[in-house]
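Quick one, tokens below. Sequence please?
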């Protein structure tokens, strides 16, 4: 039976990416050694690192003056590293969900944090609008896609202060004007690779401006100067990222991927709106292309476990919504084929015919 993987993360990877990684685990490029057992400072792995950085820059059209880093610790460590390196007195944060709240919490250890707007009043079901970014902030932080609540920011803001974005779950899903950002970071385990590596895209001129001393490992400059190899990097996840970016380039890049993602999302959102049993949870003008959240209407709530079992029997995995919102969540990341979304739509239609009152 074909499996349809809707997991929110670690999430689906393209089949050829998994197969190519598996081959490299056995034998990297015919050298007779695994990618897991060669020196990260040797020429064979340096070639992997160089190509991964080059593909990042090419596919995102990253301008001069930016560095691409591969670090450990996940996006959660960046919640701390960012203010350590960039918050002198005050930072501004847009509060759009759990991860945005966690990022702001860490920043409070280093200075004043101004929450410019929040959607907590409606359980983070929308993206706030009409807020003012304080001109005296050291930076303005946003979380572009909110995996738990299914909302997404598609605008590259014109910010009067350095703009920083956590793009863990929507990087490479659409074109981004990198020149508008001082820094973009994220965990790889949604659209890029397996868990274990974190990407950071940082404009060099925003660094070196804080008064505090920064521990060596938490200083971005350390990793820039050492090409992400001050310590041993997460070699295997970086290799898989390279394979993912090769696959993405072969498909036509982020513009093509954006079109595919829009088609997948429209297919599922249209069915959620049409189907008598289900309803969406995110405001229509804020709906994510990456994480589509929906629930059973009140009169059908008792069917939730039955629907999980029904879809599982059809090979569908990872549809359970986050415990804070319940219901269902279909994560439609880059590597998820449209046929998997179509299969879910057909399952919803079949389930409706079975239970429609």
């Amino acid at each position: 039976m074909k499996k349809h993987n809707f997991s929110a993360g670690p999430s689906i990877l393209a089949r050829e990416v998994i197969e190519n990684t598996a081959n490299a685990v056995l034998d990297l490029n015919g050298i007779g050694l695994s990618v897991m057992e060669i020196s990260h400072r040797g020429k064979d792995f340096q070639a992997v690192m160089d190509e991964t950085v080059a593909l990042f820059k090419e596919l995102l059209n990253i301008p001069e003056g930016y560095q691409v880093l591969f670090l450990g610790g996940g996006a959660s460590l960046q919640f701390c590293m960012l203010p350590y390196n960039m918050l002198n007195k005050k930072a501004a944060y847009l509060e759009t969900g759990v991860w945005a709240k966690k990022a702001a919490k860490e920043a409070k250890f280093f200075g004043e944090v101004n929450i410019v707007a929040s959607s907590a009043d409606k359980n983070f079901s929308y993206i706030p609008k009409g807020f003012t970014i304080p001109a005296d902030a050291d930076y303005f932080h946003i979380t572009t896609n909110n995996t738990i609540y299914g909302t997404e920011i598609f605008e590259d803001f014109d910010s009067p202060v350095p703009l920083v974005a956590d793009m863990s779950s929507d990087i490479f899903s659409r074109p981004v004007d990198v020149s508008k950002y001082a820094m973009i970071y994220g965990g790889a385990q949604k659209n890029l690779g397996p868990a274990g590596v974190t990407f950071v895209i940082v404009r060099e001129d925003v660094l070196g401006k804080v008064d505090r001393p920064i521990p060596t490992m938490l200083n971005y400059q350390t990793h820039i100067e050492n090409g992400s190899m001050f310590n041993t990097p997460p070699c295997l996840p970086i290799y898989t990222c390279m394979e993912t970016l090769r696959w993405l380039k072969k498909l036509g890049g982020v513009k093509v991927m954006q079109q595919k993602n829009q088609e997948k999302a429209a297919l599922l959102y249209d069915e959620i709106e049409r189907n008598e049993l289900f309803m969406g949870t995110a405001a229509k003008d804020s709906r994510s292309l990456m994480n589509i959240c929906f629930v059973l209407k009140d009169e059908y709530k008792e069917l939730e476990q039955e629907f999980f079992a029904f879809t599982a029997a059809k090979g569908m995995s990872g549809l359970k919504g986050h415990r804070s919102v319940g219901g269902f969540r279909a994560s439609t990341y880059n590597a998820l084929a449209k046929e998997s979304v179509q299969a879910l739509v057909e399952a919803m239609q079949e389930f409706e015919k079975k239970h429609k009152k």
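The chain has a mean pLDDT of 97. The longest strand covers residues 112-118.
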